[in-house]
Design brief:
Blueprint: E1 7-12, E2 28-29, E3 57-63, E4 75-82, E5 97-104, E6 146-147, E7 155-156, H1 159-173, E8 195-201, H2 211-228, H3 236-239, H4 242-267, E9 274-276, E10 305-311, E11 333-339, E12 350-351, E13 353-357
Antiparallel strand pairs: 1-8, 1-9, 2-3, 2-8, 3-4, 4-5, 5-12, 6-7, 9-10, 10-11, 11-13
Helix pairs in contact: 2-4
Bound molecules: zinc ion (4 copies).
Amino acid sequence: MATARMDLGFVNDDCDARLLQSHYFPSKVGGKPAWLSLNPIPKTEQLSCPRCNNPLVFLLQVYSPRDKTEEDAFHRTLFLFVCQNSACSTPNDASNFKVFRSQLPRMNQFFSSDPPPDDPADEIGPAPSAQKYQPLCEVCGCIGPKQCSQCKSVSYCCKDHQTLHWKAGHKTACGKHVSHDSEDPSACGVLFPELELEIEEETYSPEKSTKDETEASQEYQQYAENVNTGQSGSGLGDQYSEQDLEGMAAQETEDDRIFKKFKKRVAQNEEQVLRYSKGGEPLWVSSDHQAKQEDIAVCSCGAPRQFEFQVMPQLLNHLGVDEKEGNSLDWGTLCVFTCRDSCAIGSNYTEEFVWKQDFSADR
Ligand SMILES: [Zn+2]
Ligand SMILES: [Zn+2]
Ligand SMILES: [Zn+2]
Ligand SMILES: [Zn+2]
């Protein structure tokens, strides 16, 4: 089997926010979504949590043109959303996540067919924005069909976000002729910190082995020897047959093996928050709950879906989730599978497939 190219994503918290706007076709974490297709963007129903119905919040987007020669996917971005309600988070269950694919031809109604200036200061005219085509929620940047009934100048996706915005400062700004720019949407505590995602090819040498790995394999060898000679320190030999013990040891070593492989691979690029390899293989964190082909729903066009990228647990360190009360956002890894054919969807957003795998309970 040919090894697919593997790219890694790293966060950069020192990026000019102007470079994270839609027409720069960014890959990024947090902030508001930088929509690719500016109209129509996903509807409120598409962006509500299937479990609690609350609005999903933008987590990250990855710009990944399928192939620059592909007429209708010259631009292509995947958008990942999550429900922040801790009650919706269950181990090995991705139902509080949704991922959408958007793509556009080079000649489209929203963006120039030429790339934007390297220096955003050289820009002429207003930046293309989804706001031009439909009202956006002031708090989360998704579609905002509800207006503030007093000033009618700001919109919201739902009552909750309106209330948060009111408390965070709109109460004093409403109806006064002050620039809404002074109302910081991050003050509402909904958005994740906005960070650029820098993608580069993985450098990895399989020969390098870490100290951890050597120690773990020695420990296991010791354990296996004890089991074989019936000298297990815990007295297990009295209660279980040799066969049982071999079974337990084999099971343990399979999960250990996968976890060690994961740790070894990550150790050489510890800051990675994303692994990208279209048509490649995810790096699993456990032997449990690995997605098999039959687990992955086929695309509505009938084509199978293939692996495209995975979000690593390291990203959690950058999301400031510990500071948020009642938030239990967690994952071992989030694997995104997309239509093998990147089928034509016009300027719509189509839902793709997310799989969540958690670390085994004893990690
Ligand atoms: Zn929910
Ligand atoms: Zn909102
Ligand atoms: Zn108002
Ligand atoms: Zn498809």
